[in-house]
Hints:
Layout: E1 2-5, E2 8-20, H1 22-25, E3 33-44, E4 47-51, H2 69-76, E5 86-88, H3 94-97, E6 101-103, E7 109-111, E8 118-121, H4 125-130, H5 139-149, E9 152-155, E10 166-169, E11 178-184, E12 187-191, H6 200-203, H7 215-232, E13 235-237, E14 245-250, E15 253-258
Parallel strand pairs: 4-5, 5-8, 8-9, 12-13
Antiparallel strand pairs: 1-2, 2-3, 3-4, 6-7, 10-11, 11-12, 13-14, 14-15
Amino acid sequence: MTLRFGGWEIDLLDCGSIELPAAALGPEAAGPARTAVTATLLRGHGRTVLVDAGTGPCAVLWPGAGGDALLGALERAGAAPSAITEILLTHLDFDHSGGVVAGAWPEPIAPAFGAAPVLVAEFGLDAWWAAEERTLNVGTRVLRCLRDAGVLSAFGDGTEPVPGVLARSAPGHSPGHTVLEISGEEGVLLHLADVIHDRSHVEHPDWDGYYDDAADAALATRTALIAEAEARGAVVLASHVEAPGRIERRDGVASWVDR
Length: 259
């Protein structure tokens, strides 16, 4: 399904899935469960923008992850990799940034989309550059690859890295974690990135904290954005939910409702 907002045609891209432990889903989870990994394609205003990029070669770090699924998703959406004008990353975790590089992880790797600029939040860069190089920290190596290739670009909080797409800091989950806002005659769309990892986390925001760097800050961000999305009647996207939705009251409780 293609959404139309603010002059953009917006498609969710299936980049495979990862298995999350029950502890990452909540106390009512029956056990580990496979969770969608998505990217988002924005077409309009003379641009073809990819928001996040799945795991790419970093799939080897998480058994069952999607690997090259992004390429198939782009093909199904009718978008050639060469048509991508910018890649906008909501953050640098492996299942969001891995697909901006191609090759064999951890090396050799190179930018997967040629000379297309890769846009990342400047307010998380210091933390990534200083981070210890460990198995699931792909961000530091990805940044180095992009910088050395001359395709890395940074954006600030409250700016439009792409015209018509507002980037907002959403602290707590991961350095530089960013949500995106698109406004138009249709209303407002919020891309929540990893503010939630499951539909149930709207009703139970305290269940989602397993992968947060700063759990208290992430919970405050999550709670505030859920309330904002409800109050504004926003269409919402989330990186690990495979369909767009809205936040609506059900029996007095905020819930994710598929659109």
